[in-house]
Amino acid sequence: MSIICFLLFMIFTHDSCFAQDSIGKQIGQHTIYAELFGNAGAAVIGYDYVVPFKNMHKISFNCGVFLGMPRSSRYTNIPEGVTYYENVGWDENAIISPQISYLYGRNHHLELGIGLTYNYLNILRWIDADDDYPPENYWHIPFRVGYRYQREKGGLFLKIAYTPIIIDPFKRESRNFIPIWGGVALGYTFKNKK
Predict the structure, then answer these.
(1) Rounded Cα distance, 15 and 93, in Å
(2) Predicted structure pTM score
(3) pLDDT in tens, 89-127
(4) CATH number for the 2-7+27-67+95-118+137-189 domain, one of 2.40.160, 3.10.100, 1.25.40, 3.10.450?
């Protein structure tokens, strides 16, 4: 997926396609944001880069990341012989969610996008039990239809979107679709220096 994103980025940022300044450098917007739910299905910290290519048309490349620290959980299905204090498991979670979007507008945008989310989940084990759980890898394909507020001069960044998700499309036995899902993001767009 990283190679595909890089190739798309190179194609869309070619100097014959997009707006440039007087010395030939690409003019784009850099944004740091936090998103709740949305593509990743969790709270993520992300980076977004927007490239204009016509009067009201732009392309956005972004990626959200969640790196969960191991956390303890008390389980309700306690194995026989495990005491209350042993009824604790640990799990790790990591998410990376790149996406490409089409934007229409100046400061207020319609956003249409598609991405690919990778989710790693490792339930470590019961503290005093022998049952280990192998790490699991989940792939999701999220879609995005939403509103984005992002001024051309920089400043406050806000977006809200409907984000239906196809879960594990690469595993036939676990194929699933979540039609009702959404997300909201808040961040800061750095001032564009021309």
Answers:
(1) 40
(2) 0.72
(3) 556 678 899 999 999 999 999 999 999 999 887 765 544
(4) 2.40.160
